[in-house]
């Protein structure tokens, strides 16, 4: 069975590298992007199963990227997980996301979010 493909989108190099190492050890195939344009390019090339988004990445926020992905029929079923140090009360925007995980989070919380979001996305693709 092919590994789940994850794209980590964060403007912090250290966060991206740490997540890549951590998730690779857990059997995931991981790619990185530091901003909106590189994220959208990676999504077109790699077709990830999951995108982990930081919410606060100037000039485009993770929520803006999520809006674009949900509006595009070729990417609207990708599992989206917000992984951010500051999670505001944006209830209406959370409908764009499969899960929200606040940094720092215990490793198992992020792994559970990935597993659950991936399963939910696969069910959506089957319908």
Description:
This protein is of the alpha/beta class and 127 residues long. A five-stranded parallel β-sheet has the order 2-1-3-4-5, with helices on both faces. Strand 4, helix 4 and strand 5 form a beta-alpha-beta unit. The chain is globular and about 35 Å long.
Distance linking N and C termini: 21 Å
> Could you tell me the strand content as a percent range?
15-25%
Overall pLDDT confidence: 87
Number of strands: 5
Percent of residues in helices: 40-55%
Structural class: alpha/beta
**What is the global morphology?**
globular
Question: What is the CATH first-level class name?
Answer: Alpha Beta
The CATH architecture can be named as 3-Layer(aba) Sandwich
Give me the secondary-structure topology:
Blueprint (H helix, E strand, L loop, with lengths): L4 E5 L3 H13 L3 E5 L2 H11 L3 E4 L8 H10 L7 E6 L6 H4 L4 E4 L4 H20 L1
Parallel strand pairs: 1-2, 1-3, 3-4, 4-5
Would you summarize the structure shown here?
The chain has 127 residues and is α/β, with parallel strands linked by helices. It contains five helices and five strands, in the order E-H-E-H-E-H-E-H-E-H. 46% of the residues lie in helices and 19% in strands.
């Amino acid at each position: 069975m092919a590994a789940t493909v994850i794209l980590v989108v964060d403007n912090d190099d250290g966060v991206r590298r740490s997540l890549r190492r951590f998730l690779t050890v857990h059997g995931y195939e991981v790619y990185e992007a530091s901003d909106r344009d590189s994220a959208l390019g990676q999504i077109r090339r790699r077709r990830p199963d999951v995108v982990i988004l930081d919410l606060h990445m100037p000039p485009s926020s993770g929520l803006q990227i999520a809006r674009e992905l949900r509006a595009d029929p070729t990417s609207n079923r990708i599992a989206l997980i917000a992984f951010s140090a500051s999670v505001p009360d944006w209830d209406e925007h959370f409908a764009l996301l499969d899960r929200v995980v606040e940094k720092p989070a215990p490793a198992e919380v992020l792994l559970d979010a990935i597993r659950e979001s991936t399963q939910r996305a696969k069910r959506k693709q089957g319908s």
